[in-house]
Amino acid sequence: MPYSRRILHYSPGPADLVGEVSDRAIAGCWFELKRQGGCGDGELVLRDDFSDRAEIDVGDWIACEYGTGDRWYLGKVVERSADSPAGVRLTLRGMASELAEVFPGGYGPHDPDAAPPHRYAATDLFANDPDYAHETVDSADEPRDVIEFLVQQYVVPKTHLAYNAALVNTTLASTTVTSLKFRGEETAESILRELALRARNAAWGVDETGTFFFLRKCTNVGATFQAGDDALRLVETRERDLLYNRILLTGGLVYGSAPASGECQCVYRWRGHYVQPASRTQYGERRIRLWLPWIRTAADSREFAREFFRVYAQPATCWLVEAADQTTLIRPWLSRVRLNDRHGNELTTTHVETVRVQFDHRPRFRLLLGPADPRELWPEPPHEERHPIVAAAASGYGGELLSLTSLNLAESCPPSSSSGGSSFGSSLSGSLGSD
Questions:
Q1: Would strands 203-206 and 212-215 be described as parallel, antiparallel, or unpaired?
Q2: Contact, 147 vs 69, CB < 8 A?
Q3: CA 143/CA 121 separation, integer angstroms
Q4: Which residue in 17, 232, 325, 408 has the fewest CB atoms around it within 10 Å?
């Protein structure tokens, strides 16, 4: 199909077509596609001397097509600024941004929406919760179960997202869920990020059709770029800044049984302290604090910590690729890319985290390959999280030296097989294999 850029305007909803924006009115356009997020940020600039520049307003939708029927992007207008004579600048956000406006669960009888707390669990462990009698429970023992419930129960009814069960197909037999409880405090977006990492760093988001996806990491190669040929610019960076081998994980509140004597009920906050010993030995200690208030068990925190180390316990190799005159869109959630040197030798074949498309006279791609910054995915809380703890035998606090047999560290520093103990005094033995 020949390139004939089309910018379509929808209002009030993403299915309500208003018409095509005149190509002469467009001064510039770009958008991003993310492996975790789908359609991301974008921008459309309209020339100031066109009368229809004021027809598009905040809350409207913009779709970008390579040609008639070949859609590449869908985003919502979240900001409109006019600067004469520069023109009208429309800031776009992909539909996945609506996930940040959905809060699963609730406070129960005291919630303005009368929404009960919602627990997704494979077993019943927290009968002492003060709101136990009011909670809603769904049986779930793997991330896919929780994803399907969250999207169908909370996301679809409150957003423009469409759901297709065929696009929620990522799970591993070794990746489990024990007990997660939501009280309307966390966003669906933050929950999805954690579950995606647990599911072997799965892809998730909303595609250009407005359909939600949650997909296992793909193995097929969708495009090849060669330095000096397809790739106008190719930059490799290997850094220690995204390397972490020690986690202090802060979870939710755990309630003990209320004493009959009228004393205060024992309440403490779940903490997990995990170390990847092979990485620490080779690269030195790199510590990060993470805040995941829906986690309250050793099994759930261990599942997260293990997959976190699988991604971040070694120096990250990041690539930047710039390519012009592109005719085939790279959707990061559907395929990987291969990079070759000037002689055609393979440099790497890996997943793309972000594709930025400069959508002007000819599409130009800017690809970012390499893991996302965990400090942006799971920012630290704005306050110190120090809480009283009870005796280790009663608390079940988590902590381990996590050995990963599939971690690609140098042969001079093989993964440790030793068992470890928690910084809180409890002991958890055994290593975790590659599964």
A1: antiparallel
A2: no
A3: 11
A4: 408
